[in-house]
Amino acid sequence: MDATIWNAPRQGETPGFSVYLCILRASVVQNVQRCYKPRRVRCNKSSIVVPKLTNKMKIDFKKYTDGLVPAVVQDYKTNKVLMLGFMNEEALQKTEETGLVTFYSRSKKRLWTKGEESGNNLQLRQMLIDCDNDTLLIKADPTGPVCHTGADTCWSERNHKDDFLYYLEDIIKLRRLSNDETSYVKQLFGKGINKIAQKVGEEAVEVVIEAKDVNRELFLAESADLLFHYLILLQAKDCSLTDVIDVLKQRHQPK
């Protein structure tokens, strides 16, 4: 936004409000630059409690002659089906104990923790059993591609939610990790958390300005800018849109 626009009152706007906005914008910049002390605050993903099947959810391993039950693995965040494996009682126990999804490999003839060689583990988030007590649904967070071919899933599907904001999160992550020094996102991450936080503050003030005007197109454009830079800030703080949604869901729970 042009600097002169900050100083000029909009149609129907009092000069006092325009001055207020100028002061607000200056305050955002100065406070971020002067008062913000960086701290490494991470969204604590390691604090996830490893879920276990309750006594009411008994798996009928004896239903199959080899003692193995099918275990369908689904991404906890995107709901995409990732792979199919098989578990015996020992594999299930190890999965519950370690929080890393472990199968019984019919080819290796032993327990096999997904990612034990590639490092692409499946971090357990939830376990469900079907109505016949003979098939498991494992919901997990993958730390990398799941298929041995390098694909996201064993069905060669891209593993992201059918939601553009989650897709945009993935794009931001790729830009951050890329070697393209001409990328705006890459450059912004390179300037550090202070600059990113300042940018979010500036965009927020611009949304306030456009909210006072009657130009719907400009209001939506500034809103998009704010949302985009907020997603960048979340990643700079090692958080995600899902983390924010989880907080909102907790607040929405009936008291």
How would you describe what is shown here?
With 255 residues, the chain is of the alpha+beta class. The protein folds into two domains: 10-36 and 162-244, Helix Hairpins (Orthogonal Bundle), CATH 1.10.287.1080; 52-142, Ubiquitin-like (UB roll), CATH 3.10.20. Helix content is 43%, strand content 15%. It has helices at residues 3-7, 15-35, 89-98, 164-177, 184-190, 193-211, 216-236, 241-252, and strands at 69-75, 81-87, 102-105, 110-113, 122-129, 136-142. The longest helix is centred in the first third of the chain and has 21 residues, at 15-35. The radius of gyration is 24 Å and the shape is elongated. The two termini are 44 Å apart.
Main structural class: alpha+beta
State the total count of DSSP E strands. 6
- Name the CATH class of the largest domain: Mainly Alpha
Distance from N terminus to C terminus (CA atoms, Å) equals 44 Å
**Low-confidence sequence ranges:** 1-8, 35-41
Please tell me how large the radius of gyration is. Answer: 24 Å
Output the CATH topology of the largest domain.
Helix Hairpins
* H/E element order: HHEEHEEEEHHHHH
Q: How many alpha or pi helices?
A: 8
CATH superfamily of the largest domain: MazG-like
Shape: elongated
Layout of helices and strands:
Elements: H1 3-7, H2 15-35, E1 69-75, E2 81-87, H3 89-98, E3 102-105, E4 110-113, E5 122-129, E6 136-142, H4 164-177, H5 184-190, H6 193-211, H7 216-236, H8 241-252
Parallel strand pairs: 1-6
Antiparallel strand pairs: 1-2, 3-4, 5-6
Helix pairs in contact: 2-6, 4-5, 4-7, 6-7
